[in-house]
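Please decode residue identities from the backbone states below.
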């Protein structure tokens, strides 16, 4: 159910407060260093708010928004390095389990290199959490959740002024998809994924104002994001395998080649699935209300 009394400032405060809450809720897991979900949730929170700052830019004091965005970019980068390693490790371990016994064991020996990378990166994250800059970012978010620096336009009713904001997000992803051509590059598909994620975040932020219409748009963008996320993860894993194969024994290189074939097949399957997912998203039912 939508709330016609909400203002844009209400929407923005909710977004910032949610990020601060998710960060502090997962901070214990970050400090413990053994909770991948805590890293994931904290990273998502920072990414979501950075996207929301772009979405609602005309309602925010520019210098204030730029400073907060810079803080979030730094924090997200610190969290992202560890999260990317964990995602890649878990993905390749699952793929290795599909190989014959001998090749699976050889593949696992190679994948253990990611464990060493993870351990080193986790130590860097622990150091980051003890830095004065992290305390500053935490305090900045806490203050922003209570008193964001808003422009006068933020006092308007959200339902009256935010449809064009969402339409802008939708139009960006639509133009990006229309420009793909018949055989888009991996980078082009990744750009669609990024824009789908931003459109999803915007729709979720605006859900209190638009109810089920915004939820439907968010669900459609989640579908696009998921299939292209699978494609991106497969491409990244394949690149890591190709680079690492040169440093392996012949038996390990053979196993790595088998893993690379699985990732290539996964990327191709995601490419084939994308048109149908986009067809389901690009309908009047999903975005005709904008």
């Amino acid at each position: 159910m939508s709330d016609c009394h909400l203002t844009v400032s209400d929407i923005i405060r909710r977004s910032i407060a949610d990020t601060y809450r998710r960060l502090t809720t997962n901070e214990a897991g970050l400090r413990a260093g053994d909770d991948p979900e805590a890293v994931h949730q904290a990273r998502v929170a920072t990414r979501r708010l950075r996207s929301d700052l772009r979405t609602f830019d005309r309602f925010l004091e520019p210098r204030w928004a730029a400073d907060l965005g810079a803080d979030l970019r730094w924090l997200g980068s610190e969290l992202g390095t560890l999260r990317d390693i964990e995602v890649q490790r878990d993905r390749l371990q699952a793929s290795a389990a599909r190989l014959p016994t001998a090749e699976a064991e050889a593949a696992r020996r190679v994948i253990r290199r990611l464990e060493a990378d993870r351990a080193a990166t986790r130590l860097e994250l622990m150091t980051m959490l003890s830095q004065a800059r992290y305390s500053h970012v935490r305090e900045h978010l806490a203050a922003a959740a209570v008193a964001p620096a808003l422009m006068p336009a933020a006092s308007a009713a959200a339902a009256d002024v935010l449809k064009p904001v969402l339409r802008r997000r939708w139009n960006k992803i639509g133009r990006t998809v229309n420009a793909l051509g018949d055989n888009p590059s991996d980078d082009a598909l990744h750009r669609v994924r990024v824009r789908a994620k931003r459109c999803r975040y915007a729709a979720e932020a605006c859900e209190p104002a638009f109810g089920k219409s915004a939820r439907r748009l968010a669900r459609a963008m989640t579908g696009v994001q998921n299939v292209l996320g699978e494609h991106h993860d497969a491409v990244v894993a394949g690149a890591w395998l190709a680079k690492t194969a040169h440093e392996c024994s012949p038996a390990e290189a053979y196993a790595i080649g088998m893993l690379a074939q699985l990732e290539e097949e996964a990327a191709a399957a995601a490419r084939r699935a994308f048109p149908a997912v986009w067809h389901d998203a690009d309908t009047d039912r999903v975005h005709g209300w904008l």
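Observation: Residues 62-96 form the longest helix (35 residues).
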